[in-house]
Amino acid sequence: MAASPRPRRAAAGILGAAALLAALSGCGLIGGSSDDSGGGGGAGGLERTSLKVGAMPIIDSSPVHIAAQKGYFKEEGLDVQLETVTGAATAIPKLLSGELQFTYGAYVPVFQAQEKGTGDFKFVADSYQTAEKIFVIMVGPNSTIKTPADLAGKKIATNTKNSITDLLAKSALETAGVNINDKAKPIEWVEFPFTDMGAKLAAKQIDAAVMLEPYVTQAERTHGATPILDTSQGPTKDFPISGYTGMAKFVQENPKTTEAFRRALKKASETAANRTEVEDAATKFAKIDKEVAALVRIGTFPTSLDRTRLQRTVDLMRKYGMLTKDISVDSMIVDSAKTN
């Protein structure tokens, strides 16, 4: 589903605050049942019916929330308990310990963990991919930076170095003709939370910032920030951002449960093709008004995992030093989740 063309400027900051507060709540439950039993031999011959799944109260992870809200998990015989995580990087230890059976999160940290031998991970379902103006590089009010070329030699903020945000920004800059390795005019990369970037731009403490929605709209309205470069173009157009991951051991020992979980997410992603459904779900899991949900730019929710698309992530990570060796993408994808 392409991002809606209508303007979305008012009140998006409220969504940012709601998402941040919920995301930072750590291990709080954000949906599903409170039943913690593992249980074997469940409905339809499932190896187990009770699952704990990491999720974030943000638009990107709408499918898992939709599946919980609309009863898609229950239709598959699953009792799913959603637990708040701040992303794959924080959820990976919980996957390793068995505290979570699956989690939502960005692909970049999972590939990094796979390369390091932290664990053997499996992608069960896709979740989100970029669309226009979802991730952009912003400059402050009255900035002297007028074109992407002006970003050379500047101080640019990213939320986390060697992250998906970092990856998209570097690729977009090079696509725009900026030499990011220019020793004469080196770019200085600094880390700040998305919530702080708008104020840092306004105070001229940084020259530019790599931001995503809803913080883009928030920075525009609150601090007069201006988009200077859309990172979702060229090599990063329709780029895979995040998905749902489990451990290979769990997937191998619980194939029917894994498949039931995947089917529910696939149905939810199909539902998410209707923007109204996403907006309605967001009013519940992100605790925002319908008027606010209608203003946010939204990417797309794929219904299957495409090896070629994920390989683009690995290739770019290698190009920018986020990986040092090839990753077998195909072996990390659950067979039933692959594009037919």
UniProtKB/TrEMBL annotation:
Q: What is this protein called?
A: NitT/TauT family transport system substrate-binding protein
Pfam (any one)? NMT1
Give the source species. Kibdelosporangium banguiense
SMART domains annotated for this entry?
PBPb
- InterPro entries xrefs: Solute-binding_3/MltF_N, SsuA/THI5
For this chain, the family text in UniProt reads: Belongs to the bacterial solute-binding protein SsuA/TauA family.
Q: Which Gene3D superfamilies match?
A: Periplasmic binding protein-like II
For this protein's source organism, the top of the classification is: Bacteria, Bacillati, Actinomycetota, Actinomycetes, Pseudonocardiales
Q: Which residues form the Solute-binding protein family 3/N-terminal domain?
A: 50-280
